[in-house]
Amino acid sequence: WLKPFSPDETSTYVDIQSLIRIRYPLDHRLMNPTGLTSMISDMDFLSKASEVIMPLRAELFLFCAAVAAYFLLFANRVPRTRKSSPKSMKKSPRLDDGQDETQMSKVDSMDASQLQEALSSAFELGDNRKVLRCWAALKHLDQDAPSSVSLSHVVESMQRMKQDRVLIMREIKAFLKRCQPEAAVSLANDLLESLGHRLDTELMEKVSEALAGLNLELDKRSYEIFLSAYFHTRNFAEVSRIVSEMVSKQVPLSIQALVVVVKTALRQGNFSEASESFRQLKLRWNLAAASPSSAPRNIVAQLVELACKEQKLDRFVHDLEGVPLSDDVLMAMFSESTRQKDPCLALAVEQLARSQMPQKPLPEAMCVLLVRCLAGDRSKVEAIFEEVSSSDKEMSQDLTLSFMSSCQLTGNVSLAKLLYKRSSKLVPVLVAFVRYFIDCGQFEEACDIYEEHLAPLQSKKGDEASKSFFVDPRLERSVMNAALRCGRSSLAKNFLDSSPSDVAKHITMIRNSAAAGNLPGAISVFESLQASGVELNSIVYNTVIDACVECHDLKTAEEWMKITRAAGMTDVVSYNTMIKAHLHNDHFSKARALIEEMKGEGLRPNRVTFNELINAVVTRREARGINIWDIVAEMQDAGVTPNQVTCSILLKNLHARSDPRAITKTMDLITSMEEPMDEVLLSSVVEACVRIGKPDLLSQKLKQLKDDKNVVINGSHTFGSLIKAYGHARDIDNVWKCWKDMRSRHIRPTSITLGCMVEAVVSNGDTEGAYELIHQMKDDAQCCEALNSVIYCSVLKGFTREKKLDRAFSVYGEMKKMRVDLSVVTYNTLIDVCARCGRMEHVPEILEDMKAQGVKPSVITFSTMLKGHCQQGDIHTGFTILEQMKKETNLKPDEIMYNSLLDGCAQSNLLEEGMHLLARMQDEGVKPSNFTLSILVKLMSRARKLDQAFSLVAELATKYGFSPNIHVYTNLVQACVSNKQLSRGLSTLQEMIRQRVQPESRTYAILIRGSLSVGLYEQASELLRAALGLRGAPAHLSEASAQVAQMDPSVVNEALTGLVERGVGEEIAAPLLGDIHQFRPNIRLDAAVQRRIMSGHMGGSRGKLPQANGYMQQRPMKGRGKGASY
Questions:
Q1: Which of 495, 1020, 1031, 1083 minimizes the number of CB atoms within 10 Å of its CB?
Q2: 976 and 988 in contact (C-beta within 8 Å)?
Q3: DSSP-derived pairing of the beta strands 1104-1106 and 1112-1114
Q4: For every residue of 565-577, which 3-state class applies, written as one string?
Q5: Is the dihedral of CA 7, 9, 12, 14 positive or negative?
Q6: What does the pLDDT read at residue 1005?
Q7: 107 vs 523, which has greater pLDDT?
Q8: CA-to-CA distance for 338 and 446, rounded, in angstroms?
Q9: What is the mean pLDDT of the chain?
Q10: Pick the residue with more confidence: 810 or 105?
Q11: 3-class SS at 395?
């Protein structure tokens, strides 16, 4: 069997055989050739397997290592035996078929009571199968379902046995049908309670539906179970539904149900519902004679927390009376009252806290918060101080500082001195006392405290006890200034001696002395610094010059300027300080001389120099004649570019009468400015545009600012300017947009900003919206302090203009309730609304309130009352008020009062009284105005004295040096037409045009009506053409000054209608209508008027008969065509 092998193979075979023998010495296969061959085959297989395994040896090694590590770590641990539950331990062993049949026979032989007992025992043992057997046996009994059976046990066993929910509900319904109604509801409640503990609300709802199907209603206990289950599953919508259902079915809410309702409202953050339910809960406690302490304290704490969050603690604090409160809850309420700065709320919380701890003083922590909130109530703070002082305990630092803040707010120096004696002598407390006494001018007290307590600590710098104390520069400067003010020069000298070469400290001392008006002290500080031998710089000299200017000693400033020049320390700042001083004293020429001197010394004027000059031209009278743009040109020639300050000053110079070229130059300068526009300049731009009074320019600038993304607004004042500008531009949408933008960025509005917002909303016709905004601000703790009488008066004036008397008085009532300062403006506005509404009977009551508030009436008060009575035709009462004012006050009647009386005389046709009043007016030095002239013309016209009207206008205008305006001329035209002198009215119109007084719509309307009334239809047409600037106007009315700037469309429609009604529609009205369409398409014409003209033009003037007086009379027609007029 060796033949198949070659010698080489044989040797190989022998070697393998030897190896096999060595490796397997006891293998029986080696004993015969067949076994050896098998062995060789195995080795071949192993060789091939090794070829496969060798590349994977690293992975196999890691796997084996992991297995070894696992067995090493966990193989020796003994597995824990799982503990059996008590119920599983009680379970009976599984029965075989024979035992099962025996058990069934036993159950079937039991009666109802035995079955119930067996069912309960089986449920306790956890034998759910036996429970269901007993349940099945109970169902087969021929009697009503027993009321004592536990339906909840049966349902739970069915659920454990994985019974279908439909089958379970079928069993429940069948069982409840066999029960008596009362028993059925009771058993259902037991079942609902069991399901509620397991939070199985779906099956609970099915049980409820089953009861409804049996015409059984849920009782109070059922609803309580549902409320508890839904609350624990956080299904608050269902809780609300259950409560609504209970209310609708008049099921009373128990204490437990109300507790759930309160918790639900708290979870939802619904304070109104939570507080209302808490009130009901508190009432139930009282009715049940139960102690409120049974309520979970966390509910009360959560209610208080939510009330603080919603800023409604003031409405809720009274509901807590009689409810035990923890110190944490009381502290939270005190903290909220302090945060809201609501003294009334703080007093209410204090009363509540004292009721919780009778005969005991308030804890110190509560006193700290109470004093902080009542800091402005001097008497109350003093009472708290007396209460705290009654104990021998030393006041803490927090309490002392709280009292100090109150003293600082109320200026209660006496309390501060008592507090110093009782307080601890800690460093922060002592520093606070020093600063307080310095601020209130008690310099001796401040220096005493510093020298007695703080100075020793400052000198012992090496002690451990004083390492934490360090006199900050601000305190040091304040004490130095106090020492100088009270004559303690030694103390001030100690500060300076402690650092004789400290230039910054000496500069600060010089500035403080100047601010206090102590120029000699400032100079002495400079001399001490100079004596120390330290090297002085220009800043020190400039500080002394500035001190002289601040103390208004220009002569000394000039002397120090010479000293500075001699020392070679003059610079641009030195000259700018002196230039500013000379400009402030209206010495413009000296300021100019200093600029030339500065240039002579090689110093170039900078922006500050030129801005001071420009500001002087704008604000100082002496420089008013200088052309401001010459200085701007000089500034640019010097290579100094205008900056934001320059543009802001130029904007201050713009107003409604400014030269349009100056307005254009200023706006162009702002556009070409290199610096980016900041908030101050933006505010100045919009305010200037408002002052100029050009809506187009304002809208243009607002659009540019809106499109400019580089301008970032962060200040409340800037938002106020923008709101004011948009209000003037009648852009209410952007008004609200600015306001919402400001509020969304949490920028707190100031009183000025809020006033601009309210005024903008009122001026755009939404007074109610402005009033609602005030209420929103009143409810906002951060903004309520911004409300003042000016803001309320804006709303008051809005309702006055709208003639809403009741709303105006409701605003007044709220102002009194809020204790807003009531000024004479408030009362004048109230009298004005009474005058506008013709309800002058309310005025005596308003005057009584004025007297009670200590507000004295002004000339406007009497003038408004007088005007109101005159408008009602009671001219005699008006004269009585005039005499009363002269007799009871030192006030003198003004032009408005006399004009109101003159207007009353005109309405009552009292010519003689009016002329006497005019003479009296002139005798008392009150100059008539154009308004006076227009009233006098009306008075003369009604008295049929046209010539006297013209002569009176000429006489007064010449005497007092003014020209009649459009209103005077229009009244003269009206007087001419009323007195049947139309030609004189036309002559007056020509005179107006010669005097460059542009007519208004009313002027032409009077003349057109007069022309139509006398049949001068062509003349009426020519007047309308002149007013509209159309062709065909008379030569003397063809100038541009004769045209109306803004023609009232109603006048045009009235004139065209008059022409059609008088039968000249085809001849005159139709061509006129065509020219209006062609040349003045912006005139809004009534469609009905156009149809009448066109129908007459197409059908001719049939059906019309001329009358003798020029009118056309309409002939009756048989039918009416499409274009007939009605």
A1: 1031
A2: yes
A3: antiparallel
A4: HHCCCCCHHHHHH
A5: negative
A6: 93
A7: 523
A8: 29
A9: 79
A10: 810
A11: strand
Residue 679 tokens read as 């908030």
Query: 334-359 pLDDT, tens per residue?
Result: 888 888 888 888 888 888 888 888 77
Contact 233, 227 (CB under 8 A): no
- Secondary structure of 141-173 as H, E, C letters: CCCCCCCCCCHHHHHHHHHHCCCCHHHHHHHHH
CA distances to 169, 188, 212, 727 from 209, rounded to whole Å, are 10, 11, 5, 62
Distance CA 686, CA 680 (A): 10
Token pair of 1040 as six digits: 């541009």
Q: How far apart are CA 882 and CA 697, in angstroms?
A: 45
Contact 754, 786 (CB under 8 A): yes
Tokens of 655: 């107003």
Surface-to-core class of residue 600, CB atoms within 10 Å of its CB (0-12 exposed, 13-18 middle, 19+ buried): exposed
**Phi and psi (nearest 5°) for 1114?**
-85, 130
| Digit-coded pLDDT (tens) for 607-623 | 898 888 888 888 766 55
430, 454 contact by CB (below 8 A) = yes
Tens-place pLDDT, residues 789-833? 899 899 999 999 888 888 899 999 988 888 888 889 999 999 999
Tokens of 547: 């001190």
819 dihedral zone (left: phi>0; alpha: psi -120 to 50; beta): left
> What does the pLDDT read at residue 707?
67
Dihedral angle, C-alpha 654, 657, 658, 660, nearest 10 °:
120
Residue pointed to by tokens 């207007």: 903
- Nearest-angstrom CA–CA distance, 1075 and 1085: 13
Choice among 151-165, 723-737, 1062-1076 with the minimum mean pLDDT: 151-165
Contact between 999 and 1006 under an 8 Å Cβ cutoff? The reply is no
Torsion angle of C-alpha atoms 315, 319, 324, 327, degrees rounded to 10? 10
DSSP codes of every residue in 730-760 = T-HHHHHHHHHHHHHTTPPP-HHHHHHHHHH
SS3 463: coil
pLDDT in tens, 191-218: 888 887 877 888 888 888 888 887 878 8
* Residues sharing a CB contact under 8 Å with residue 168, sequence separation 6 or more, in sequence order: 155, 158, 159, 203
Which of 495, 503, 399, 392 minimizes the C-alpha distance to 450? Answer: 495
Residues 902-945 pLDDT 10s: 888 888 888 888 899 899 889 888 899 999 999 999 999 988 99
pLDDT at 844 over 60: yes
| Alpha carbon distance 132, 154 (integer Å) | 7
Q: Are 627 and 661 in contact (CB under 8 A)?
A: no
Phi and psi angles of residue 602, each rounded to the nearest 5 degrees, phi first: 85, 15
Q: What is the pTM of this model?
A: 0.48
How many Å is the maximal CA-CA distance in the chain? 168
Of residues 530, 550, 443, the one with CA closest to residue 491: 443
- Those residues whose C-beta lies under 8 Å from the C-beta of residue 152, and which sit 6 or more positions away, are 190, 191, 193, 194, 195
Alpha-carbon distances, residue 3 vs 7, 9, 1023 (angstroms): 10, 10, 148
Find which of 301-305, 362-366, 755-759 is predicted with most confidence, using mean pLDDT: 755-759
H or E stretch covering 1104:
strand 1104-1106
d(CA 198, CA 156): 10
| Lowest model confidence (mean pLDDT) among 58-62, 94-98, 323-327 | 94-98
Would you list the DSSP string of 773-839? Answer: HHHHHHH-TTTGGG--HHHHHHHHHHHHHTT-HHHHHHHHHHHHHTTPPP-HHHHHHHHHHHHHHT-
23 burial level (CB within 10 Å; 0-12, 13-18, 19+)? exposed
